[in-house]
Design brief:
This protein is mostly helical. It has helices at about 5-15, 20-25, 35-40. The two termini are about 15 Å apart. The protein has one domain (about 5-40). The protein has three helices and no strands. The chain is globular, with a radius of gyration of 11 Å. The longest helix is centred in the N-terminal third of the chain and has 13 residues, at about 5-15. The relative contact order is 0.17.
Length: about 40
């Protein structure tokens, strides 16, 4: 995940008022195609 997509994703999650544990879990989930697993395997 790029720095830009991490920043936007974290900002969105914080705006939703999730608690810390929910944010940790959701940052690892692919919500809208922001995590590209193919690049991680190279």
């Amino acid at each position: 995940m790029s720095i830009e997509s991490m920043t936007v994703k974290l900002s969105w999650l914080l705006a939703q008022k999730f608690n810390y544990e929910e944010i940790k879990y959701k940052m690892l989930q692919d919500l809208h195609g922001e995590i590209n697993i193919e690049n991680e395997l190279i």
